[in-house]
Design goal:
The chain is built from 16 helices and 122 strands. It is mostly beta strands. A hairpin with a 5-residue loop joins strand 28 and strand 29.
Length: 1776
């Protein structure tokens, strides 16, 4: 078959049949005997005959009577004499667009009008790329057929304007074009860039809808037969301002999918395209020469003229194209653009939101959301607002859940929102200030959907509830007037009349009113003068004939231009050339060329400026020569002097490939006659033209990493950190200072490390001292102590405490004397008296003594008068003696006593801290409760009827009421406690009785006084006056406040301000738990009910209360609790526990006795305790930093506030970092800051103005490091640090290697490698990652889950043990941190191939891979741990007798710790060499032919060991930072170094380091930081200090005299500086006080604050100091806000019976004018309720009437069929 590449099978068969027919017929039918001839319809013609019609055209008729192929005749064809059309034939092509035909026959001979064949297109799908061009396939079919005796390789000739449907081909490599066939195959395109196709040799029109005869065309949006409604025309122009400082500027961003793009740049700037795909891929494309380029599958045509560049893109664009202009010369570049942008965002209606009710009839709303058509995802609404063509659909409303609700009156379900409860509405805040002051800015505001509840509360709800009304706009334009701009006037005349001169113009700053003003950017001001050239020679040149002079008979023909007419596109229209300026010899011709355009509506031409025409402007002047004048020679004659002359012949190659190079002009000596270069000696050397050069390759060099030198190490030993700054820069010139900082992603190489470890070696043991403790006595002689330890810092950061002998230096003192002064006089207590009681709890007293402690520590007694002004110590205290005998229990009770009633009371204290409904108590205790709490007080008794229990209050019989009653079990119930319930309740059971004290706590934590007489009653126990009662109440109030702080939310939660209370709360918490322990079996069975007391209260025994107090005292003595807090709390608690009772109250001590009362007569104990607490509180305290321990985090917000102690990873979004260091102490401590150990000072970006606050503006990579805050006062110091690092996205250091692993081997590969592993091998895939914070590593398998032998190691590697074919697949490593993730993949191929033979393997290695056979004479083998050890016994495979193995003459079972296997019936012994002692002599014993056979093999241990290498060279030449280290290597017995894996079973020795070159460094200059520039704006100077310093061998820095350093090496201490901080905040006048109301007559007002240059131009806010920014808003007094809510009377109820609603009018009214204003003015205060429920009399069922105001709605909605609504609207439903 000759036609091998034709894409359709039908075509191939037809062509084969055709060739067969041609070869068998005569050759007269073809013009050439050897050429192929295609019949007119060979590809489509069925078996029939061709006949000629009257027109001379060929048509086809059928000669067979196959009626089954006919379709039914149509009505219109019956009258025309034609039969019905036949079926469609097979398509002429299988792809690329072919043709199919249908035939019909004439029923009355040949008298039918019309054609008998019709065509249609088919197979319109595109062909594969490899199929090639269809016309080329037809030409190639003739390659094997001789043409004029020769064969050729034929190539297609396309786009023939005369015969587009003839098969014309050209011989490859020849200028031979032949028409090989009069017709191409049907379906062949007429032209390469057209859809029209050839059918039957005629070019038929095909529309974009791929239909024959269609005139459908694509619109500007690329839509076939569209109306250009899916895109929008974007056209305009912009002027770019580039400079050497601003190398490029974005001119226009053309979005993805745009079409018919035309961009023209007029000026010197170079056009650059940056493509940005939807997948985030970015590339930059430059154009060096005209032509077409393919960018992201989009063809871009670039044209370049003298001062014009044009980009034409048919489209659609395959990515976003950002067109930039790159700097070439100082002139501005004008960019004009035109393109059709697709409308990529459209509105799409959402589904209906959930129904407003679940039953009874509600409504549903839907909305519309903005959809990104390209990505098919929802985007914010403002994207759809960009296109005016987009109209947001209005929300739709429909009814839902119409089924009636069970057991409902049907009211709420019918109208979920009515005029009593308003519908949700939109609420918006005021507009923000305009983003710019001119030129068109935007204002924004926030809008939320709110709903008013039945309680008149305004709540934010979902937005869909407000979608029934349009959402207010969130953004609007503002300040639309133009900004002031530079306007240039006309140029003046040139200052000279010939040659080069200057011309000038006036440039003014004009505002939008046309007035001369200020505020224009001075950097954008056009130049006011430029060079000009007058085309008149300033001297008369020597007359010479031009070299190009022609002979007379070669007279030039005058150029004839085609007459051009204007079109709809602007174009240059030239006029005819003028006659030559001379009649003979050389002259000039001129013409006019104008830019014109045809106005279609008036069919007239209009003249435009030349800039509007994009094509190059034709020449307006040319040379002409009408032949030599009379008497002149035909050829010019030259003398030798005139024959040779110097000329410039191009430029040399550029001296640099980027960042600006030079090109020198090449000067050559030229022969003018033949234009050939000759030797320089032929030209006059004195007339040689001057050297000329020009700049070239001015584009920036590719980005690369530039790093600074490493900072000094943060530590001299142990482990330190060094940092440096690494930035991505592009060089603008070869001057190091001319570099541009670019984003890091532009540097393609791996980023160098910015942090490294240093001085990582063990420190020598050193003394470490702690802070001195306080002096044991402030006077009278005391001691200060501190702890001194000998510690060693290791290189891994760990600290080891060693014996004192290891520290070589003398040990610092641990104790020093202090306080060597006389103490002031003080009062002390004498000996305590005996306890006032013989049992139980009583009191003790003592006298005071005035004494003084001298400086030597001796006590001296003074006169009492010396201490009169001093507070006395406590003179009274409680005491406890042995327990008192209770009811004479030990004696034998009498019979009458045994039957006496007994109350089982519980002596407990209850404190309530949170509101509860009901609490159960047991009589015998006391409780401090909150009001409105209900209580039940039980009175458990023995031997007494509970129904006869009586209760008393304050000694009086209890009055029973609705709130107060006694249950059948004798318990007292009080509902909703009030102040009247305060008192002492007594349970009386016959002769027995017990009390319960009840107190109430008020809102201000004060005890509520009972009503009536506020004075405390006097009783048997003593009297308390009103002052003492007030003091007791004050104590309780202070205690309750402390208690409330601790018991917040029933959790002992402390922030930093309560850190001193930790120890106390530990004790307090433990006793609360004790009090909640289960009761013992002997206690009352219902006690557990009150122990499960409430989460918001505390309960404990009185003895626990006292024990708690004692423990707190001990804690205070150990200084775990602040003295002032502990002493005051103990005093308050004990005073409350032991306070006197009323006459009817019996307070029981821990063992049941009455507590002795304090003698309050002198009241000195209380006074002394309070003053002592105040004195201790005022004692000085050491500086302390408040710590808030939180984990590090990655920060994406612009402003970051950190508490010291917390670390953070910064991102590019971080603009401000503030570190807070809150320090406490008395006196107030001072705060100092360091970074990496270096003190910080204020600078332009670092602010230390606020104490305890460090602020960093615009943080840079140099700002990363460890920041330490140190707080110090006279009592001591404290420090804390935070680590700030810049976050980096994760990266994977993948590899691209191929490796093979054989069975039994192990291999470690890097992710990205392709690994071919044999079955049974071990493979480990490492995933080395980079990123800050360190990324997390996860592995995934493309073929499924990780399972079986796939193990994820702790270092992030993936281990595959004993690889099998199930492990075949692709493994992905995913590294992720908060900045993103990175992915790399490795392919694992599993094969069954074994390792190739290794003939050169040593015997020792072979032994590890095979079985070592034992021998009767013995064999020897050496094995290392981990090798495979298999020993064979030399017997035949059919050996049946048992085989026994022994090691060292011991049976295998008796060898301790040995692991082994017996294989092949004992013939092979496999030993595990990783465990036990496996080496020695192995023997196998068996019997062969009744004879004992023994063989043995000796296994020896192949020994390896770790060995230390030589010392490295010292890392420093002087100072104390020099170190040396010794490497560790693994060596064999022969002292040969082997792989470290051979020693991995041995403990690896530590890497040794030692200091070296410990000597003083030579003096050197050290400069400090530069000061600020002396002027805030413009040129000034700055200064710094330099000091001469020397580092000693001990690491100390010595400051030396300046003469010790060499003066010629001293750095400069003063230099000129230029400050760019010429920006100042400018505040406009305050606007009207018309903001949102904040209170009564209080509103807000705003003003605009802008950042402005000193010359008046506007700058971004980042250029001004944020700390000095004036206020932009403030509160103000506004009479419009002097409003309040006014309510009217309630309306009548909505129903006459049953339950309904009633409403009232609530208005916002001005207080002065009493006029109703907008409700928003009253939004600062809560709005009163507008409606409420109301109840009328019950409805009677006998009368048929309406009982709802909404019966009209029920009737309209046809709800009367439902019984529920029919009953409520009986009358209305009957009327319907």
């Amino acid at each position: 078959m000759l036609l091998k590449k034709v894409d359709g099978l039908f075509v191939e068969l037809s062509f084969a049949v055709f060739l067969t027919c041609v070869s068998g017929s005569s050759q007269t039918g073809a013009s050439h005997s050897q050429s192929a001839y295609f019949l007119p319809e060979f590809a489509l013609s069925p078996q029939g005959s061709f006949m000629e019609d009257t027109t001379g055209e060929q048509f086809l008729t059928y000669r067979y009577d196959d009626q089954t192929s006919r379709t039914t005749r149509s009505d219109e064809d019956k009258d025309l004499g034609w039969d019905a059309w036949g079926p469609w034939s097979d398509c002429s092509r299988t792809c690329g667009g072919g043709a199919s035909y249908s035939l019909r026959r004439c029923l009355n001979g040949r008298n039918c009008e019309g054609r008998n064949i019709k065509y249609k297109t088919c197979s319109n799908m595109e062909c594969p790329v490899e199929s090639g061009d269809f016309r080329a396939q037809q030409c190639s079919a003739h390659n094997d057929i001789k043409y004029k005796g020769e064969t050729y390789e034929w190539l297609p000739v396309s786009n023939d304007l005369v015969t587009p449907c003839a098969l014309k081909c050209q011989a490859k490599g020849k200028n031979l074009v032949v028409e090989l066939a009069p017709k191409v195959l049907d379906g062949t395109r007429c032209k390469t860039d057209s859809l029209d196709m050839c059918i039957n040799g005629i070019c038929q029109a095909v529309g974009c809808d791929l239909q024959l005869g269609s005139n459908a065309k694509e619109d500007n949006c690329g839509v076939c037969a569209g109306d250009s409604s899916t895109c929008r025309l974007v056209r305009g122009q912009t002027k770019t301002h580039v400079s050497p400082e601003k190398a490029e500027e974005t001119a226009i961003a053309v979005p993805y999918g745009s079409r018919n793009v035309r961009i023209t740049a007029k000026g010197p700037g170079h056009l650059v395209i940056e493509s940005n795909t939807l997948q985030g891929k970015k590339e930059e494309h430059t154009f060096s020469s005209p032509g077409s380029s393919l960018i992201e599958n989009t063809n871009v045509e670039f044209q370049k003229g003298p001062d014009r560049q044009t980009l034409r893109i048919q489209g659609p664009l395959g990515a976003d194209f950002i067109v930039k202009v790159r700097y070439v010369s100082p002139r501005d570049t004008l960019v004009q653009f035109l393109y059709y942008q697709p409308i990529s965002h459209q509105w799409k209606e959402t589904d209906f939101f959930p129904c407003t009710v679940t039953c009874g009839g509600g409504y549903q709303l839907n909305s519309a959301e903005c959809i990104d058509v390209r990505l098919n995802r929802v985007v914010p609404d403002h994207y759809c607002h960009y296109y005016p063509e987009n109209k947001k659909p209005k929300p739709k409303l429909k009814e839902c859940n119409m089924d009636p609700c069970p057991a409902s009156d049907g009211y709420k379900e019918i109208m979920p929102y009515d005029h009593f409860q308003p519908l949700p509405r939109w609420e918006h805040n005021p507009w923000t200030a305009c983003s710019v002051s001119c030129g068109g800015g935007i204002q924004r505001r926030t809008v939320i959907c709110v709903e008013e509840t039945v309680h008149s509360e305004i709540l934010q709800v979902e937005e869909w509830k407000c979608m029934y009304t349009p959402k207010p706009t969130l953004m609007q334009t503002c300040n639309l007037f133009d900004c002031p701009k530079w306007v240039a006037m006309e140029w003046s005349q040139c200052t000279v009349t010939c040659g080069r001169g200057l011309r000038y113009r006036v440039v003014l700053c004009i505002d939008h009113h046309g007035q001369h003003t200020g505020g224009c950017n001075p950097q954008l001001k056009p130049h006011i003068k430029e060079e000009c050239v007058v085309p008149v020679a300033c001297y008369k040149p020597k007359e010479k004939l031009p070299v190009e002079a022609k002979l007379p008979w070669f007279k030039q023909a005058q150029e004839l231009d085609d007459i051009r007419s204007a079109s709809e596109e602007p174009s240059f229209i030239p006029d005819a050339w003028s006659p030559c300026s001379v009649t003979c010899g050389p002259g000039r011709q001129t013409r006019q060329v104008k830019c014109r355009v045809l106005l279609t509506f008036s069919q007239t031409e209009a003249e435009l400026p030349d800039d509007e025409c994009e094509e190059p402007k034709p020449e307006v002047e040319q040379h002409c020569n009408l032949g030599p004048c009379h008497g002149e020679d035909a050829f010019p004659q030259f003398t030798r002097e005139d024959l040779y002359d110097w000329e410039y012949e191009g430029f040399t190659t550029c001296s640099a490939s980027c960042a600006g190079g030079k090109q020198e002009a090449i000067v050559v000596c030229l022969n003018k006659r033949d234009r050939q270069i000759v030797a320089d000696s032929h030209c006059d050397a004195s007339n040689r033209p001057p050297k000329m050069s020009r700049s070239c390759s001015t584009e920036l060099c590719p980005p690369r990493w530039e790093s600074t030198s490493w900072n000094s190490c943060s530590a001299t030993c142990g482990v330190g950190i060094q940092t440096r700054s690494v930035t991505c820069k592009r060089r603008a010139s070869f001057n190091n200072e001319d570099s541009v900082l670019v984003p890091e992603k532009e540097c393609l190489e791996a980023k160098p490390a910015i942090v490294q470890s240093c001085n990582q070696f063990d420190c020598p043991p050193l003394w470490q001292v702690e802070e001195w403790r306080e002096c044991s006595h402030s006077c009278g002689g005391g001691t200060q102590s501190r702890k001194v330890h000998c510690k060693k810092l290791h290189s891994d950061g760990s600290v080891l405490k060693v014996a004192d002998e290891f520290c070589k230096n003398p040990k610092p003192p641990s104790h020093i004397p202090c306080g060597k002064i006389d103490c002031p006089p003080h009062l002390i207590g004498g000996e305590w008296s005996k306890c006032s009681v013989s049992c139980g709890v009583g009191i003790q007293r003592r006298e005071t003594v005035c004494r003084r402690m001298t400086a030597t520590g001796q006590q001296v007694t003074l006169n009492r008068s010396e201490c009169t002004s001093l507070p006395p110590p406590p003179l009274v205290r409680t005491c406890r003696v042995s327990s008192c005998v209770k009811h004479n229990k030990e004696s034998k009770p009498k019979a009458s006593q045994k039957r006496e009633p007994q109350i089982l009371g519980q002596n407990r204290v209850y404190i309530q801290t949170r509101q509860e409904k009901r609490i159960h108590f047991t009589v015998g205790g006391r409780a401090y409760l909150l009001p409105k709490t209900s209580v039940v007080i039980k009175c458990p008794v023995k031997r007494f009827p509970k129904t006869l229990i009586r209760w008393e209050k304050d000694g009086q019989a209890l009055f029973i009421s609705k709130r107060l009653g006694i249950t059948k079990s004798g318990s007292l119930k009080i509902h909703s406690l009030e102040a009247a319930d305060i008192g002492v309740y007594r349970c009386v059971a016959g002769s027995a009785g017990d009390t319960f004290v009840l107190k109430l706590i008020g809102k201000d934590n004060r005890l509520i006084e009972p009503p009536g007489d506020r004075k405390l009653k006097t009783g048997q126990s003593g009297n308390l006056d009103a002052n003492e009662a007030a003091r007791m109440e004050e104590k309780w109030n202070r205690m309750s406040k402390v208690w409330q702080t601790w018991s917040e939310k029933n959790e002992f939660y402390l922030d930093d301000s309560h850190s001193n209370d930790q120890a106390f709360l530990r004790v307090l918490s433990s006793y609360f738990q004790k009090s909640a322990e289960p009761p013992s079996p002997s206690e009352h069975p219902n006690r557990h009910r009150e122990l499960a007391l409430l989460p918001g209260s505390y309960s404990m025994d009185a003895r626990h209360f006292e024990e708690l107090a004692r423990n707190i005292s001990e804690q205070a003595e150990g200084r775990d609790v602040a003295d002032d807090m502990a002493s005051q709390l103990i005093y308050h608690l004990m005073a409350e526990v032991t306070r006197p009772q009323s006459t009817t109250e019996k307070w029981k001590g821990p063992l049941g006795e009455k507590v002795a009362l304090l003698d309050k007569t002198p009241n000195t104990s209380e006074l002394a305790l309070n003053k002592d607490a105040q004195r201790r509180f005022q004692k000085q305290k050491k500086a302390h930093i408040v710590r808030r321990r939180l984990g590090p985090s990655v920060v994406f917000q612009k402003q970051l506030n950190l508490s010291i102690g917390r670390s953070a990873f910064l991102t590019n979004a971080t603009q401000t970092v503030a570190l807070m260091c809150e320090a406490l102490g008395v006196p107030e401590p001072k705060v100092f800051w360091t970074r990496n150990g270096i003190p910080l000072r204020s600078s332009e970006r670092i602010s230390l103005d606020v104490p305890g606050r460090l602020q960093i503006l615009r943080p840079q990579f140099d700002d990363a490091g460890r920041y330490e805050c140190t707080a110090a006062n006279d009592q001591g110091t404290d420090s804390e640090s935070s680590l700030l690092l810049f976050a980096e996205p994760p990266g994977i250091k993948s590899s691209k290697k191929n490796s093979t692993v054989w069975a039994g081997h192990s291999w470690t590969a890097i992710v990205g490698d392709t690994v071919v592993a044999s079955s049974g091998s071990n493979v480990t895939l490492d995933c080395p990652v980079t990123g800050v914070p360190p990324p997390t590593i996860n592995w995934h398998r493309k073929e499924g889950l990780l399972k079986g032998n796939m193990v994820l190691l702790s270092n992030g590697s993936l281990s595959l043990h004993n690889v099998s074919f199930e492990n075949f697949g692709t493994y992905f490593c995913v590294a992720a941190n908060p900045l993103g993730k990175a992915t790399a993949a490795s392919a694992l191929l599993v094969t069954a191939l074994k390792a190739p033979a290794e003939p050169s393997v040593p015997p020792r290695d072979k032994a590890r891979k095979r079985i070592m056979m034992a021998s009767r004479v013995g064999n020897y083998i050496s094995v290392k741990p981990g090798d495979l050890l298999r020993l064979g016994c030399p017997v035949l495979t059919n050996h049946k007798n048992p085989i026994h193995w022994r090691l060292q003459n011991q049976t295998m079972q008796k060898v301790p710790g040995l692991q082994y296997k017996i294989l092949l019936a004992g013939r092979v012994l496999e030993v595990n060499t990783l465990f036990g002692r496996f080496y020695g002599r192995y023997q196998c014993h068996t019997s062969v032919n009744s004879q004992i056979m023994s063989a043995w093999v000796s296994v020896s241990l192949e020994d390896y060991q770790w060995e230390l290498g030589n010392w490295t060279s010292c890392s420093a030449s002087c100072g104390n930072k020099g170190t040396q280290s010794r490497s560790v290597r693994c060596v064999s017995e022969a002292n040969h170094e082997v792989n470290s894996s051979a020693c991995q079973h041995l403990p690896r020795p530590a890497l040794e380091r030692r200091p070296c070159n410990l000597q003083d460094c030579p003096p050197s200059w050290v400069p400090e930081a530069w000061s600020h520039c002396s002027t805030p704006c413009g040129s000034g100077f700055r200064q710094r200090q330099t000091t001469c310093r020397q580092m000693t061998a001990s690491g100390h820095i010595k400051i030396l005299p300046r003469d010790d350093c060499r003066p010629e090496h001293q750095p400069a201490e003063r230099e000129v500086c230029v400050s760019d901080t010429c920006a100042l905040w400018v505040a406009r006048s305050w606007r009207q006080c018309a903001g949102r109301c904040l209170g009564p007559a209080v509103s807000t007002q705003h003003r605009q604050v802008i950042c402005q240059h000193s010359n008046g131009s506007l700058l971004p806010d980042s250029y001004c100091d944020e700390r000095k920014r004036p206020l932009s808003s403030r509160n103000c007094s506004a009479d419009i806000c002097n409003v309040h809510w006014v309510t009217q009377a309630w309306n009548t109820c909505t129903v006459s019976c049953g339950h309904g609603f009633q409403s009232r009018k609530v208005e916002c009214v001005h207080k002065k004018s009493h006029k109703t204003v907008d409700d928003q003015l009253c939004s600062w205060q809560k709005r009163p309720s507008k409606w409420q429920h109301c109840s009328a009399t019950s409805c009677s069922r006998g009368e048929c009437k309406d009982t709802s105001h909404y019966c009209a709605v029920v009737k309209r909605l046809k709800l009367c069929l439902i019984d529920l609504y029919k009953q409520r609207c009986c009358k209305s439903c009957q009327e319907g």
